[in-house]
Amino acid sequence: MTQVYIISLKESQRRLDTEKLVLESNEKFKGRCVFQIFDAISPKHEDFEKFVQELYDSSNLLKSDWFHSDYCYQELLPQEFGCYLSHYLLWKECVKTNQPIIILEDDVALESNFMQALEDCLKSPFDFVRLYGHYWGGHKTNLCALPIYTETEEAKASIEKTPIENYEVTPPPPNPAQDAQQDFIIETQQDPKELPNPCKIAPQKTSFNPVVFKKIKRKLNRFIGSILARTEVYKNIVGKYDDLTGKYDDLTGKYDDLTGKYDDLTGKYDDLTTKYESLLAKEVNIKETFWERRADSEKEAFFLEHFYLTSVYVASTAGYYLTPKGAKTFIEATERFKIIEPVDMFMNNPTYHDVANLTYLPCPISLNKHAFNSTIQNAKKPDISLKPPKKSYFDNLFYHKFNAQKCLKAFHKYSKQYASLKTPKEV
């Protein structure tokens, strides 16, 4: 009986649904295949760092098409590394048992033609067959045998608006004493002419008193002396102010010089920005020209009616059929090139191995509700960081062209190899 492995993290919220799928499938396909869960490798695994030492070499990323593409986020996430390891260990299990296996991920649902697809795969000469696939969303294509992958946006939670209450301000109670005092102040500020009986003050004669004069003189002298003392302090302050003013003028001059230099740098920056925008325009033109010509390199063919081969990149490792020969080839390629890109991209790339990438149509599995809740992209970043080398701008720019040429070359190679099995549907 064929072994069907479902890769699932122990701590994942999908685990219960996966266990339910295993029980239901074993009951439904009893005697034909056996479903079981394979515990996925995560960065928390006790041997994770050991695997990193053995199978990761940052310098090898320079050999990766994915690394030079516009869709690489500059490093292989540890969660992506763990995902690759899960598939890698199952490849080893396939070689060990020397029997074909099916590998599924825990975000799939089985379609009604699942068992028919398995029987067709077992009868075919193919070593690797995807049971689900889609054209990579980063590529434009005129082909339509498979869907183009686009992630659904998460629904934004509605923000509950809190009603704003209007509070009335109650005036304070009247204060009779305060009102009487206010009336008195108003009366004293009125014009004397308006008063009914203005006061009449008679002038009085004053006589000269020498004692009082001396006291006034002494107080006046003290007052003048105090003013003179304060004048000295004022002079000192004025002197310091003049010094500070001089220093300020010097700083102002230096600031003007720096402003002039800044203006020069701004001018140079504007020139560089203009050149950069010109380069970006050329890059866009190169890519647009490539996309316009891509139709010439897009090929597809069917073999044994259901097995689909194309020169366009097909993504996803949600589910696939694998023989021991195919597993051995993937293992050797991994150990030779190291883990340098996500597993589905590595398996699809003809640069690394000699395994035809076929997809069974109609797809016998589909994605379930968990597919858009990634356990890789949404996971918290662990302490381990897989540092990448510096990219080549030239390789990035011409990535699409080089990749298309390699995929087209591989298509013609396998199309010729399996020509006797071809269904007359080639485009």
From TrEMBL:
- Name residues in a coiled coil: 255-282
* Keyword terms of this UniProt record: Coiled coil, Transferase
Domain Glycosyl transferase family: where?
1-168, 283-347
**One Pfam family here:** Glyco_transf_25
CDD domains from the xrefs? Glyco_transf_25
Annotated GO MF terms: transferase activity
| Chain segments annotated as transmembrane | none
Protein name, UniProt field: Glycosyltransferase family 25 (LPS biosynthesis protein) family protein
Q: To which species is this protein native?
A: Helicobacter pylori NQ4044
